[in-house]
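Changelog entry: the Putative beta-xylosidase record was regenerated in this release. Current contents:
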Amino acid sequence: MVAGAAGVTAAAGARAGLPTGDLGDGIYRNPVLPADWSDPDVVRVGADYYLTASSFGRAPGLPLLHSRDLVDWTLVGHALDRLEPADAFAVPRPDGGVWAPSLRHHDGRFWIFWGDPDHGIHQVNSPNIEGPWSRPHLVKPGRGLIDPCPLWDDESGETYLVHAWARSRSGVKNRLTGHRMSRDGRELLDEGRLLIDGDRVPGWFTLEGPKLYRHDGWFWILAPAGSVPTGWQGAFRARDFHGPYEERVVLQQGRTEVNGPHQGGWVRTPSGDDWFLHFQDRGAYGRVVHLQPMRWDADGWPVLGDDGAPVLVHEKPALPRRPPSGPATDDDFPGGRHGLQWQWAANSRPEWVIPHAGDGLRLACVPSTAADDVRRLPQVLTQRLPLRPCAVEVRLRLDDTDTDTDVGARAGLVVLGDAYSWIGLERGADGVLRLVHRFAERGAERERDAAHPRPAPGGTARLRVEVTDGARCRFSADTGDGFQPSGQVFAATPWGWCGAVLGLFAAASAAQATPGTATFAHFRVT
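Regenerated C-alpha coordinates:
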Protein backbone atom coordinates (compact mmCIF):
# COMPACT_ATOMS: atom_id res chain seq x y z
CA MET A 1 0.00 0.00 0.00
CA VAL A 2 1.01 3.59 -0.63
CA ALA A 3 0.24 5.97 2.21
CA GLY A 4 2.32 8.96 1.15
CA ALA A 5 3.51 10.86 -1.91
CA ALA A 6 6.46 8.53 -2.59
CA GLY A 7 4.39 6.20 -4.74
CA VAL A 8 3.50 8.77 -7.40
CA THR A 9 5.42 8.29 -10.62
CA ALA A 10 6.25 11.06 -13.09
CA ALA A 11 3.94 9.54 -15.68
CA ALA A 12 1.12 9.37 -13.16
CA GLY A 13 1.64 12.95 -12.11
CA ALA A 14 1.12 14.06 -15.68
CA ARG A 15 -2.46 12.88 -15.40
CA ALA A 16 -3.23 14.92 -12.31
CA GLY A 17 -5.08 17.56 -14.32
CA LEU A 18 -8.02 15.22 -14.98
CA PRO A 19 -11.21 15.84 -12.95
CA THR A 20 -10.51 12.63 -11.03
CA GLY A 21 -8.04 11.30 -8.52
CA ASP A 22 -6.93 8.49 -10.85
CA LEU A 23 -3.23 8.90 -11.66
CA GLY A 24 -3.41 6.22 -14.35
CA ASP A 25 -0.83 3.78 -12.96
CA GLY A 26 -2.89 1.90 -10.38
CA ILE A 27 -2.52 4.72 -7.86
CA TYR A 28 -5.05 7.37 -6.90
CA ARG A 29 -4.61 10.74 -5.26
CA ASN A 30 -7.20 12.28 -2.97
CA PRO A 31 -9.59 13.87 -3.53
CA VAL A 32 -11.02 11.37 -6.00
CA LEU A 33 -13.82 13.86 -6.78
CA PRO A 34 -12.09 17.27 -6.76
CA ALA A 35 -15.23 19.43 -6.65
CA ASP A 36 -18.20 20.08 -4.37
CA TRP A 37 -19.95 16.72 -3.94
CA SER A 38 -20.98 17.44 -0.38
CA ASP A 39 -22.06 14.78 2.16
CA PRO A 40 -21.48 11.74 -0.10
CA ASP A 41 -23.07 8.37 0.44
CA VAL A 42 -22.33 5.22 -1.53
CA VAL A 43 -23.79 1.80 -2.23
CA ARG A 44 -22.67 -1.23 -4.24
CA VAL A 45 -25.05 -3.23 -6.43
CA GLY A 46 -23.25 -6.14 -8.07
CA ALA A 47 -20.10 -4.77 -9.71
CA ASP A 48 -21.43 -1.20 -9.78
CA TYR A 49 -21.00 1.57 -7.24
CA TYR A 50 -23.37 4.51 -6.95
CA LEU A 51 -22.96 7.76 -5.07
CA THR A 52 -25.25 10.64 -4.25
CA ALA A 53 -24.59 13.96 -2.51
CA SER A 54 -26.25 17.07 -1.12
CA SER A 55 -27.69 19.43 -3.72
CA PHE A 56 -29.27 21.99 -1.36
CA GLY A 57 -31.61 24.34 -3.28
CA ARG A 58 -30.38 23.60 -6.82
CA ALA A 59 -32.50 21.71 -9.34
CA PRO A 60 -32.45 19.01 -10.48
CA GLY A 61 -31.31 17.65 -7.14
CA LEU A 62 -29.84 14.44 -5.75
CA PRO A 63 -27.03 13.84 -8.27
CA LEU A 64 -26.31 10.20 -9.13
CA LEU A 65 -22.76 9.12 -9.93
CA HIS A 66 -21.56 5.71 -11.12
CA SER A 67 -18.21 3.95 -10.80
CA ARG A 68 -16.70 0.51 -11.26
CA ASP A 69 -13.55 1.17 -9.22
CA LEU A 70 -14.52 3.78 -6.53
CA VAL A 71 -12.04 6.26 -8.05
CA ASP A 72 -13.35 7.13 -11.53
CA TRP A 73 -16.88 8.50 -11.34
CA THR A 74 -19.31 9.70 -13.99
CA LEU A 75 -22.52 11.63 -13.47
CA VAL A 76 -25.46 9.56 -14.77
CA GLY A 77 -28.47 11.58 -13.66
CA HIS A 78 -30.49 13.07 -10.82
CA ALA A 79 -33.18 11.52 -8.65
CA LEU A 80 -35.11 14.73 -7.96
CA ASP A 81 -36.45 16.80 -10.87
CA ARG A 82 -37.95 19.53 -8.72
CA LEU A 83 -37.79 20.41 -5.04
CA GLU A 84 -40.95 20.37 -2.96
CA PRO A 85 -42.84 22.30 -1.81
CA ALA A 86 -42.28 23.98 -5.18
CA ASP A 87 -43.13 27.52 -4.08
CA ALA A 88 -40.41 27.40 -1.42
CA PHE A 89 -37.78 26.80 -4.12
CA ALA A 90 -38.89 29.30 -6.75
CA VAL A 91 -35.91 31.42 -5.63
CA PRO A 92 -32.33 30.38 -4.75
CA ARG A 93 -32.01 28.62 -1.39
CA PRO A 94 -28.34 27.66 -0.96
CA ASP A 95 -28.98 27.07 2.76
CA GLY A 96 -32.01 24.80 2.30
CA GLY A 97 -33.32 21.91 0.23
CA VAL A 98 -31.49 18.58 0.09
CA TRP A 99 -29.13 18.02 3.04
CA ALA A 100 -26.96 14.90 3.44
CA PRO A 101 -28.86 12.15 1.60
CA SER A 102 -28.44 8.43 2.26
CA LEU A 103 -28.45 5.99 -0.66
CA ARG A 104 -29.44 2.35 -0.15
CA HIS A 105 -30.49 -0.66 -2.25
CA HIS A 106 -33.13 -2.99 -0.80
CA ASP A 107 -35.68 -5.41 -2.21
CA GLY A 108 -34.66 -4.63 -5.78
CA ARG A 109 -35.02 -0.88 -5.41
CA PHE A 110 -32.78 2.12 -4.85
CA TRP A 111 -33.80 4.34 -1.94
CA ILE A 112 -32.69 7.86 -1.07
CA PHE A 113 -33.62 9.57 2.21
CA TRP A 114 -32.69 13.19 2.93
CA GLY A 115 -33.48 15.93 5.39
CA ASP A 116 -34.84 19.31 4.36
CA PRO A 117 -34.12 21.44 7.46
CA ASP A 118 -37.25 23.54 6.94
CA HIS A 119 -39.75 20.82 6.06
CA GLY A 120 -38.63 17.38 7.26
CA ILE A 121 -37.35 14.00 6.13
CA HIS A 122 -38.18 12.90 2.58
CA GLN A 123 -37.75 9.71 0.59
CA VAL A 124 -37.68 8.74 -3.10
CA ASN A 125 -37.15 5.31 -4.64
CA SER A 126 -36.74 3.62 -8.01
CA PRO A 127 -36.16 0.11 -9.40
CA ASN A 128 -33.38 1.53 -11.59
CA ILE A 129 -30.71 4.15 -10.95
CA GLU A 130 -31.73 5.91 -14.18
CA GLY A 131 -35.32 6.12 -12.93
CA PRO A 132 -38.10 6.85 -13.06
CA TRP A 133 -37.90 7.94 -9.44
CA SER A 134 -40.97 8.29 -7.25
CA ARG A 135 -42.20 11.70 -6.18
CA PRO A 136 -40.81 12.88 -2.83
CA HIS A 137 -42.66 11.38 0.13
CA LEU A 138 -42.56 13.20 3.47
CA VAL A 139 -41.66 10.55 6.05
CA LYS A 140 -41.32 12.82 9.08
CA PRO A 141 -42.42 16.48 9.00
CA GLY A 142 -40.70 19.07 11.15
CA ARG A 143 -37.98 21.70 11.30
CA GLY A 144 -34.36 20.87 11.97
CA LEU A 145 -34.61 17.19 10.97
CA ILE A 146 -31.47 16.38 8.96
CA ASP A 147 -29.11 13.63 7.82
CA PRO A 148 -31.48 10.62 7.89
CA CYS A 149 -30.32 7.09 7.16
CA PRO A 150 -32.45 3.91 6.93
CA LEU A 151 -31.52 0.33 7.73
CA TRP A 152 -33.42 -2.76 6.63
CA ASP A 153 -32.14 -5.25 9.22
CA ASP A 154 -32.22 -8.73 7.76
CA GLU A 155 -31.30 -10.30 11.12
CA SER A 156 -34.37 -9.03 13.00
CA GLY A 157 -36.70 -8.23 10.12
CA GLU A 158 -37.07 -4.71 11.50
CA THR A 159 -36.51 -1.44 9.62
CA TYR A 160 -34.95 1.55 11.33
CA LEU A 161 -34.23 5.21 10.67
CA VAL A 162 -31.71 7.45 12.40
CA HIS A 163 -31.36 11.23 11.97
CA ALA A 164 -29.58 14.26 13.37
CA TRP A 165 -30.72 17.78 14.27
CA ALA A 166 -29.96 21.29 12.96
CA ARG A 167 -29.83 23.84 15.77
CA SER A 168 -30.47 26.69 13.30
CA ARG A 169 -34.05 25.42 12.85
CA SER A 170 -34.81 23.35 15.95
CA GLY A 171 -32.61 24.76 18.70
CA VAL A 172 -31.23 21.22 19.14
CA LYS A 173 -27.97 19.69 17.94
CA ASN A 174 -25.38 17.08 18.94
CA ARG A 175 -28.01 14.35 19.20
CA LEU A 176 -29.00 11.35 17.12
CA THR A 177 -32.60 10.13 17.19
CA GLY A 178 -33.77 6.67 16.13
CA HIS A 179 -37.12 5.31 14.93
CA ARG A 180 -38.63 2.02 13.88
CA MET A 181 -39.94 2.40 10.34
CA SER A 182 -42.33 0.51 8.06
CA ARG A 183 -40.70 -1.83 5.54
CA ASP A 184 -41.97 0.32 2.64
CA GLY A 185 -40.11 3.33 4.06
CA ARG A 186 -43.23 5.49 4.17
CA GLU A 187 -44.04 5.89 7.86
CA LEU A 188 -42.41 5.81 11.27
CA LEU A 189 -43.77 3.35 13.81
CA ASP A 190 -42.88 5.16 17.03
CA GLU A 191 -42.23 8.61 18.45
CA GLY A 192 -38.49 8.14 18.29
CA ARG A 193 -35.86 7.74 21.00
CA LEU A 194 -32.61 9.46 21.73
CA LEU A 195 -29.89 7.03 20.64
CA ILE A 196 -26.79 9.13 21.30
CA ASP A 197 -26.51 12.38 23.25
CA GLY A 198 -23.26 13.99 22.15
CA ASP A 199 -23.36 16.28 25.18
CA ARG A 200 -22.74 13.21 27.35
CA VAL A 201 -19.68 12.10 25.36
CA PRO A 202 -16.64 13.97 26.72
CA GLY A 203 -15.14 16.30 24.13
CA TRP A 204 -17.72 15.64 21.42
CA PHE A 205 -19.81 18.39 19.84
CA THR A 206 -21.80 18.94 16.62
CA LEU A 207 -22.52 15.22 16.22
CA GLU A 208 -24.32 14.79 12.86
CA GLY A 209 -24.36 12.94 9.53
CA PRO A 210 -25.10 9.40 10.83
CA LYS A 211 -24.88 6.38 8.54
CA LEU A 212 -26.49 3.23 9.95
CA TYR A 213 -25.20 -0.31 9.31
CA ARG A 214 -25.39 -3.86 10.70
CA HIS A 215 -22.08 -5.75 10.94
CA ASP A 216 -20.69 -8.62 12.99
CA GLY A 217 -23.69 -8.69 15.32
CA TRP A 218 -23.49 -4.96 16.07
CA PHE A 219 -25.52 -1.96 15.08
CA TRP A 220 -23.05 0.61 13.74
CA ILE A 221 -23.50 4.36 13.38
CA LEU A 222 -20.66 6.07 11.54
CA ALA A 223 -20.99 9.78 12.24
CA PRO A 224 -18.75 12.86 12.26
CA ALA A 225 -18.45 15.44 15.01
CA GLY A 226 -16.37 18.45 15.92
CA SER A 227 -17.69 20.74 13.12
CA VAL A 228 -17.09 20.54 9.39
CA PRO A 229 -13.73 22.36 9.01
CA THR A 230 -12.01 20.92 12.07
CA GLY A 231 -13.77 17.75 13.22
CA TRP A 232 -13.33 14.00 13.01
CA GLN A 233 -15.13 10.84 11.95
CA GLY A 234 -16.55 8.69 14.73
CA ALA A 235 -17.95 5.18 15.03
CA PHE A 236 -20.60 4.05 17.52
CA ARG A 237 -21.70 0.48 18.15
CA ALA A 238 -24.34 -1.30 20.22
CA ARG A 239 -25.84 -4.76 20.39
CA ASP A 240 -29.35 -3.28 20.38
CA PHE A 241 -30.52 -0.52 18.05
CA HIS A 242 -31.63 1.60 21.01
CA GLY A 243 -28.26 1.32 22.71
CA PRO A 244 -26.31 1.81 24.82
CA TYR A 245 -23.62 2.84 22.29
CA GLU A 246 -19.89 2.97 22.80
CA GLU A 247 -17.80 5.30 20.67
CA ARG A 248 -14.38 5.68 19.09
CA VAL A 249 -12.70 8.23 16.80
CA VAL A 250 -11.78 6.34 13.62
CA LEU A 251 -10.48 9.11 11.31
CA GLN A 252 -8.97 12.50 12.11
CA GLN A 253 -6.58 14.97 10.54
CA GLY A 254 -3.52 14.01 12.56
CA ARG A 255 -0.37 15.34 10.90
CA THR A 256 -1.94 15.48 7.44
CA GLU A 257 -3.29 18.49 5.54
CA VAL A 258 -6.78 16.99 5.34
CA ASN A 259 -8.76 19.18 7.71
CA GLY A 260 -11.90 17.81 9.31
CA PRO A 261 -12.32 14.47 7.49
CA HIS A 262 -16.07 14.38 7.62
CA GLN A 263 -19.26 12.46 6.90
CA GLY A 264 -19.41 9.71 4.35
CA GLY A 265 -20.27 6.10 3.67
CA TRP A 266 -18.79 2.61 3.96
CA VAL A 267 -18.85 0.18 1.04
CA ARG A 268 -17.52 -3.39 0.64
CA THR A 269 -16.21 -4.80 -2.64
CA PRO A 270 -17.19 -8.29 -3.91
CA SER A 271 -13.86 -9.65 -2.63
CA GLY A 272 -14.57 -8.35 0.89
CA ASP A 273 -12.32 -5.26 0.90
CA ASP A 274 -13.74 -2.26 2.76
CA TRP A 275 -13.53 1.40 1.72
CA PHE A 276 -14.86 4.67 3.08
CA LEU A 277 -15.77 7.78 1.07
CA HIS A 278 -15.98 11.09 2.94
CA PHE A 279 -15.62 14.80 2.29
CA GLN A 280 -13.14 17.51 3.20
CA ASP A 281 -14.22 21.15 3.39
CA ARG A 282 -12.20 23.33 1.01
CA GLY A 283 -13.91 26.69 1.50
CA ALA A 284 -14.91 28.28 -1.80
CA TYR A 285 -14.37 24.96 -3.59
CA GLY A 286 -16.95 23.26 -1.39
CA ARG A 287 -16.70 19.75 0.00
CA VAL A 288 -14.45 17.47 -2.04
CA VAL A 289 -14.60 13.67 -1.82
CA HIS A 290 -11.79 11.44 -0.49
CA LEU A 291 -11.47 7.65 -0.58
CA GLN A 292 -9.95 5.83 2.42
CA PRO A 293 -8.98 2.19 2.82
CA MET A 294 -10.77 0.56 5.74
CA ARG A 295 -10.00 -2.46 7.91
CA TRP A 296 -11.17 -3.92 11.22
CA ASP A 297 -8.90 -4.19 14.26
CA ALA A 298 -8.66 -7.05 16.73
CA ASP A 299 -11.42 -5.55 18.89
CA GLY A 300 -13.79 -5.31 15.94
CA TRP A 301 -13.54 -1.55 15.38
CA PRO A 302 -13.10 0.02 11.93
CA VAL A 303 -9.74 1.65 11.16
CA LEU A 304 -9.87 4.20 8.35
CA GLY A 305 -7.02 5.53 6.23
CA ASP A 306 -3.46 5.06 7.46
CA ASP A 307 -4.12 3.95 11.05
CA GLY A 308 -6.78 6.63 11.47
CA ALA A 309 -5.20 9.44 9.43
CA PRO A 310 -6.32 10.28 5.86
CA VAL A 311 -4.19 9.00 2.99
CA LEU A 312 -3.04 11.34 0.24
CA VAL A 313 -2.16 8.70 -2.36
CA HIS A 314 -2.88 4.99 -2.30
CA GLU A 315 -3.21 1.90 -4.43
CA LYS A 316 -6.58 1.75 -6.15
CA PRO A 317 -9.08 -0.86 -4.98
CA ALA A 318 -8.46 -4.34 -6.37
CA LEU A 319 -11.15 -3.99 -9.01
CA PRO A 320 -11.06 -4.17 -12.83
CA ARG A 321 -8.98 -1.32 -14.25
CA ARG A 322 -10.87 1.57 -15.80
CA PRO A 323 -9.52 4.48 -17.84
CA PRO A 324 -9.30 7.71 -15.81
CA SER A 325 -12.54 9.66 -15.99
CA GLY A 326 -14.55 12.20 -14.06
CA PRO A 327 -17.87 14.03 -14.17
CA ALA A 328 -18.28 16.09 -17.35
CA THR A 329 -17.60 19.82 -17.34
CA ASP A 330 -17.43 20.88 -21.02
CA ASP A 331 -20.57 21.46 -23.06
CA ASP A 332 -21.36 22.40 -26.67
CA PHE A 333 -25.09 22.36 -25.85
CA PRO A 334 -26.02 20.12 -28.81
CA GLY A 335 -29.57 20.67 -30.02
CA GLY A 336 -29.87 23.59 -27.62
CA ARG A 337 -29.78 21.32 -24.55
CA HIS A 338 -27.43 21.42 -21.58
CA GLY A 339 -25.58 18.45 -20.09
CA LEU A 340 -26.25 16.63 -16.83
CA GLN A 341 -23.56 18.60 -14.99
CA TRP A 342 -25.72 21.74 -14.95
CA GLN A 343 -28.24 22.64 -12.25
CA TRP A 344 -30.48 25.67 -11.99
CA ALA A 345 -30.17 27.87 -8.91
CA ALA A 346 -33.84 27.09 -8.12
CA ASN A 347 -36.73 25.11 -9.62
CA SER A 348 -36.66 25.81 -13.34
CA ARG A 349 -39.34 27.18 -15.64
CA PRO A 350 -39.69 26.08 -19.30
CA GLU A 351 -39.67 29.62 -20.67
CA TRP A 352 -36.09 30.18 -19.52
CA VAL A 353 -34.67 28.10 -22.41
CA ILE A 354 -35.56 28.89 -26.05
CA PRO A 355 -35.76 25.64 -28.06
CA HIS A 356 -33.86 25.48 -31.34
CA ALA A 357 -32.27 22.79 -33.51
CA GLY A 358 -28.67 24.02 -33.59
CA ASP A 359 -25.87 23.95 -31.08
CA GLY A 360 -25.61 26.49 -28.29
CA LEU A 361 -27.79 27.20 -25.28
CA ARG A 362 -30.33 29.94 -25.97
CA LEU A 363 -31.63 31.62 -22.81
CA ALA A 364 -34.36 34.21 -22.50
CA CYS A 365 -33.30 37.43 -20.77
CA VAL A 366 -35.90 36.90 -18.06
CA PRO A 367 -37.34 40.16 -16.65
CA SER A 368 -36.71 40.40 -12.91
CA THR A 369 -36.64 42.96 -10.13
CA ALA A 370 -33.48 41.16 -8.97
CA ALA A 371 -31.64 41.53 -12.29
CA ASP A 372 -28.86 43.55 -10.63
CA ASP A 373 -28.11 40.87 -7.99
CA VAL A 374 -27.23 37.50 -9.50
CA ARG A 375 -27.53 35.79 -6.09
CA ARG A 376 -31.30 36.37 -6.22
CA LEU A 377 -31.87 35.10 -9.77
CA PRO A 378 -33.38 31.60 -10.06
CA GLN A 379 -32.51 31.32 -13.79
CA VAL A 380 -28.76 30.88 -13.26
CA LEU A 381 -27.49 27.63 -14.77
CA THR A 382 -24.68 26.40 -12.51
CA GLN A 383 -21.99 23.77 -12.24
CA ARG A 384 -19.36 23.04 -9.62
CA LEU A 385 -16.13 25.03 -9.38
CA PRO A 386 -13.17 22.66 -9.99
CA LEU A 387 -10.70 22.34 -7.13
CA ARG A 388 -7.65 22.37 -9.38
CA PRO A 389 -6.43 25.53 -11.20
CA CYS A 390 -8.30 25.94 -14.46
CA ALA A 391 -9.44 28.31 -17.18
CA VAL A 392 -13.15 28.53 -17.97
CA GLU A 393 -14.27 29.91 -21.32
CA VAL A 394 -17.58 30.39 -23.11
CA ARG A 395 -18.83 32.25 -26.18
CA LEU A 396 -21.78 34.60 -25.79
CA ARG A 397 -24.06 36.39 -28.22
CA LEU A 398 -26.68 38.82 -26.95
CA ASP A 399 -29.28 38.79 -29.69
CA ASP A 400 -30.84 41.94 -31.10
CA THR A 401 -34.58 42.20 -30.80
CA ASP A 402 -36.12 45.64 -30.51
CA THR A 403 -33.50 48.03 -29.11
CA ASP A 404 -36.27 50.25 -27.75
CA THR A 405 -37.55 47.51 -25.45
CA ASP A 406 -34.53 45.39 -24.55
CA VAL A 407 -32.60 48.13 -22.76
CA GLY A 408 -30.97 46.58 -19.70
CA ALA A 409 -30.87 43.05 -21.13
CA ARG A 410 -27.72 41.35 -19.87
CA ALA A 411 -26.07 37.95 -19.88
CA GLY A 412 -22.76 36.54 -18.78
CA LEU A 413 -20.42 34.12 -17.05
CA VAL A 414 -20.44 34.33 -13.24
CA VAL A 415 -18.44 32.95 -10.33
CA LEU A 416 -21.25 32.90 -7.79
CA GLY A 417 -21.17 32.66 -4.01
CA ASP A 418 -22.04 34.86 -1.05
CA ALA A 419 -19.91 37.31 -3.05
CA TYR A 420 -19.85 37.11 -6.83
CA SER A 421 -18.32 38.51 -10.00
CA TRP A 422 -19.53 38.24 -13.59
CA ILE A 423 -18.44 39.35 -17.04
CA GLY A 424 -20.73 39.60 -20.04
CA LEU A 425 -22.79 41.81 -22.31
CA GLU A 426 -25.44 44.43 -21.53
CA ARG A 427 -27.58 46.76 -23.61
CA GLY A 428 -27.39 50.27 -22.19
CA ALA A 429 -29.99 53.03 -22.05
CA ASP A 430 -28.67 54.32 -25.37
CA GLY A 431 -29.33 50.97 -27.03
CA VAL A 432 -25.61 50.18 -27.39
CA LEU A 433 -24.27 46.75 -26.45
CA ARG A 434 -21.26 46.85 -24.14
CA LEU A 435 -18.96 44.44 -22.38
CA VAL A 436 -19.46 44.84 -18.64
CA HIS A 437 -17.77 43.34 -15.59
CA ARG A 438 -19.62 43.57 -12.28
CA PHE A 439 -19.22 42.28 -8.73
CA ALA A 440 -20.95 42.31 -5.36
CA GLU A 441 -19.37 41.80 -1.97
CA ARG A 442 -20.83 39.58 0.72
CA GLY A 443 -23.85 41.35 2.20
CA ALA A 444 -23.95 44.07 -0.48
CA GLU A 445 -27.44 44.84 -1.75
CA ARG A 446 -26.37 45.85 -5.25
CA GLU A 447 -23.53 45.04 -7.61
CA ARG A 448 -20.89 47.50 -8.78
CA ASP A 449 -18.65 47.85 -11.81
CA ALA A 450 -15.41 45.87 -11.57
CA ALA A 451 -14.09 47.52 -14.74
CA HIS A 452 -15.16 50.29 -17.11
CA PRO A 453 -17.67 49.10 -19.74
CA ARG A 454 -16.38 48.95 -23.30
CA PRO A 455 -18.06 48.54 -26.70
CA ALA A 456 -18.93 45.04 -27.91
CA PRO A 457 -19.28 45.24 -31.70
CA GLY A 458 -21.79 42.77 -33.08
CA GLY A 459 -23.03 41.82 -29.63
CA THR A 460 -20.63 38.89 -29.27
CA ALA A 461 -17.78 38.09 -26.90
CA ARG A 462 -15.61 35.28 -25.66
CA LEU A 463 -15.58 35.28 -21.87
CA ARG A 464 -12.90 33.76 -19.68
CA VAL A 465 -12.11 33.33 -16.01
CA GLU A 466 -8.83 31.82 -14.82
CA VAL A 467 -9.07 30.25 -11.37
CA THR A 468 -5.82 29.81 -9.45
CA ASP A 469 -4.99 28.45 -6.00
CA GLY A 470 -7.16 29.90 -3.27
CA ALA A 471 -10.08 30.27 -5.71
CA ARG A 472 -8.61 33.55 -6.97
CA CYS A 473 -10.34 34.48 -10.21
CA ARG A 474 -8.99 36.65 -13.04
CA PHE A 475 -11.53 37.71 -15.65
CA SER A 476 -10.89 38.59 -19.30
CA ALA A 477 -12.86 38.93 -22.52
CA ASP A 478 -12.36 39.04 -26.27
CA THR A 479 -14.71 41.28 -28.26
CA GLY A 480 -12.70 40.99 -31.47
CA ASP A 481 -9.22 42.18 -30.52
CA GLY A 482 -8.01 39.22 -28.43
CA PHE A 483 -8.46 38.54 -24.76
CA GLN A 484 -8.06 41.62 -22.58
CA PRO A 485 -7.86 41.42 -18.76
CA SER A 486 -10.72 42.96 -16.83
CA GLY A 487 -10.86 44.24 -13.26
CA GLN A 488 -9.03 43.13 -10.14
CA VAL A 489 -8.53 39.60 -8.90
CA PHE A 490 -11.74 38.27 -7.31
CA ALA A 491 -11.55 35.76 -4.45
CA ALA A 492 -14.47 33.34 -4.72
CA THR A 493 -16.51 32.56 -1.59
CA PRO A 494 -18.85 29.73 -0.58
CA TRP A 495 -22.54 30.18 -1.32
CA GLY A 496 -24.45 29.32 1.83
CA TRP A 497 -23.60 25.67 2.54
CA CYS A 498 -22.39 25.15 -1.04
CA GLY A 499 -19.08 25.92 -2.63
CA ALA A 500 -18.89 28.68 -5.19
CA VAL A 501 -20.36 27.74 -8.57
CA LEU A 502 -19.72 28.64 -12.18
CA GLY A 503 -22.85 30.03 -13.78
CA LEU A 504 -24.43 31.22 -17.02
CA PHE A 505 -27.36 33.60 -16.84
CA ALA A 506 -29.53 35.98 -18.82
CA ALA A 507 -31.74 38.64 -17.26
CA ALA A 508 -33.42 41.99 -17.85
CA SER A 509 -35.10 44.74 -15.91
CA ALA A 510 -38.63 43.91 -14.80
CA ALA A 511 -40.62 46.25 -17.05
CA GLN A 512 -39.50 44.86 -20.41
CA ALA A 513 -41.94 43.10 -22.71
CA THR A 514 -39.45 41.71 -25.27
CA PRO A 515 -36.14 41.58 -23.42
CA GLY A 516 -34.16 39.53 -25.97
CA THR A 517 -32.18 36.30 -25.82
CA ALA A 518 -28.62 35.23 -25.10
CA THR A 519 -26.87 32.30 -26.75
CA PHE A 520 -23.97 30.52 -25.02
CA ALA A 521 -21.68 28.15 -26.93
CA HIS A 522 -18.49 26.12 -26.56
CA PHE A 523 -18.24 26.02 -22.77
CA ARG A 524 -14.83 24.69 -21.79
CA VAL A 525 -12.94 24.02 -18.54
CA THR A 526 -9.23 23.36 -19.15
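The first helix runs from residue 10 to 13.
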